[in-house]
Amino acid sequence: MIAVLYLKPLRNQSLRVCMDNFEYLTVSYVLITGIGMSRLFISLGSIVEERAVLKEDERPKLHWMLTTWILLTLAIVALTWHAFYKWNLAYEDPAAELSPFSTLALTLLAGCFYILMEILSPETSEDGKLDMERHFLLIRPHIALWISATMIAMILTFLSFSHDVTGHFTEVYRNNVAARLGLIVNIVWILIVTPLYFKPHKIRDLVVVVTGFGMVVGMTLGTPTYSLIEDDPDLDGVLNNDLCEDSNIWFWEDVDQLGCTFSQYDVNGNGIIDDDGDGVYDRFDACPNTAEGSTVTDDGCSS
Predict the structure, then answer these.
(1) This prediction's pTM
(2) I need a surface site. Which of 21, 158, 249, 293 has the fewest CB within 10 A?
(3) Looking at the predicted structure, is the pLDDT value of residue 194 above 90?
């Protein structure tokens, strides 16, 4: 019982009251992009309200293509929040330090997203009416420009994060399949919005928005599952220094900062995690029967 009480709080040690630099930075990112989201929802809310209270001939008409781009942008921002949650876990490594360049890159990314959402928000025309179709036709090239800018800022941000965590700008892209897929997605977004720079064309614009919608659906379905399984096989939330990568077998138990449950330490099933009392848990003890008071090495054997 004493051992249980000792291990139980370990998982909560990561829940610190004070935030680290990366957490402060991502909170700022969420606030900036959140304001942009609010701007979009306010615009959409105004349209819905006017359609509810105005006469039929005065109601603003919805434009499905502009609405779709708004939803696509919101989905992309939400997916970046998920990605930064994973980076936050990587920054738990004491060797990882947030660099000024990462701060600038993430701030640039947040700014690009905000400007994109500001552009997408429909405004009233000179006659005081909301015209979503007219608004979309005017902002088409600007959508392409700022989506390209956000994707470039995203790539720069991830390169900088990689340098902070691994010491090399491209290390994460070289060794992480999910990161490489993300890089490909960033580049594809820049390519698929290229037609928006040219004159409006219903079929071409339709192909662009449908392709973008397909990408978002694929990212939404594939990113959380694939990336978590790759980086955290036992899905216990411990990515760095996970010494027990089969914790999912004891999924009903909490894990400590090393990624292990009590049952994984208690290899004999007797309720004791260090049978010989040498300070090395039985799971990692190569010599489980050392004499009491012996000086042992990291693997539990007499030195």
Answers:
(1) 0.69
(2) 293
(3) yes
